[in-house]
Amino acid sequence: MKICWFTTGRDKEAFTILKDVSDAIERKVIQGEITLLFMNRERYESPISDEIITFAEKKGIPVELISSKKFLEEQGLTIREGRALFDGKVKVKIEKYNFDIVFLAGYMLILSHVLFEPYPVLNLHPSLPNAYKGKWEDVIRNTIEDGEKTFGAMIHMVDASLDEGAPVSYAKLSLQGDGIDELYNNARNGDMAAKDTLFSIMREREFAIEIPLIIHTLSLISKGVIQIQGKRVYYKGKLAADGVDITEEVKG
User: Fold this and answer.
1) Cβ proximity of 176 and 145 under 8 Å
2) Using CA atoms, how far apart are residues 82 and 84, in angstroms rounded to an integer?
3) In the chain, N or C: fewer CB atoms in 10 Å?
4) What pLDDT is stored for residue 211 in this prediction?
5) 152 contacts: CB under 8 Å, gap ≥ 6
6) How far is residue 114's CA from residue 23's CA, in Å, rounded to a whole number?
């Protein structure tokens, strides 16, 4: 499996994901390779992004760079106005490379149809399928306020509906047991200290499964266990409209 890796290189986590996936590829856990790294920054925009670029180059991964900030400033456009135009420029850069999927790893721009229509694009979202959209802060807050007893993260396909593309895989976490029940009840009853503590615990637990979820998902795709055909996901040859539950693999 050939992967086109998209990142903005905003923080250390983006670097860690790339390194861990690269290591999983070298260990043959993922049967494939990263054939291109695309970043919507140029060199010297950020120490972290420069570190990612250097890492990729040392691994022999081709790198393509376009600063979205500079592009939009030159065009005099907002992010929303210039999204499709920028993606068109990106497409010209990446289409000369051979890849099977695009994976977004800390890519901070919303993709337009220019990229998600011709390519299968996968993204990590900190929510279970058919649950909550938005940033992780919003997801956790809504989970607590709605009285849900499970939460987690998923890999999904990118389409025109933000955070609602077809689920590929997911891992669940529980808000029951492990001493969390009383804290959960207190938070639900308006105890702000309990809510803040629960919020932190949930984020920590969800954050801990993100990289294992990415690696296991890419592993299953690379081995043909999970297949993406068009905009549909199949698991062992059968349609998996709600994604594949790989909680045990991720937590194990």
Assistant:
1) no
2) 6
3) C
4) 96
5) 127, 128, 170, 171, 172, 173, 206, 209, 247
6) 31
What's the CATH code, domain 2-128+153-170+209-240? 3.40.50.170
Residue 208 near residue 136 (C-beta atoms within 8 A): no
d(CA 161, CA 233): 17
Alpha carbons 211 and 105: distance in angstroms, whole number: 10
Closest CA to 6 of 78, 66, 72: 66
Contact partners, residue 86, CB within 8 Å, separation at least 6: 40, 66, 68, 71, 72, 109
Q: Where are the domains of the chain?
A: 2-128+153-170+209-240
pLDDT digits (tens, 9 = 90+) for 35-63: 999 999 999 888 999 999 999 999 999 99
Give me the helices (H) in the chain, please.
Answer: 12-26, 47-58, 68-75, 79-94, 113-116, 136-145, 181-188, 192-222, 247-251
How many CA atoms lie less than 13 Å away from 211 in the CB half-sphere? 15
φ, ψ (nearest 5 deg) of residue 121 = -115, 125
Distance of alpha carbon 163 from alpha carbon 150, whole angstroms: 18
Q: At what angle do helices 47-58 and 12-26 cross, to 10 degrees?
A: 10
pTM: 0.94
Neighbours of 187 (CB within 10 A): 22
> Counting every residue, how long is the chain?
252
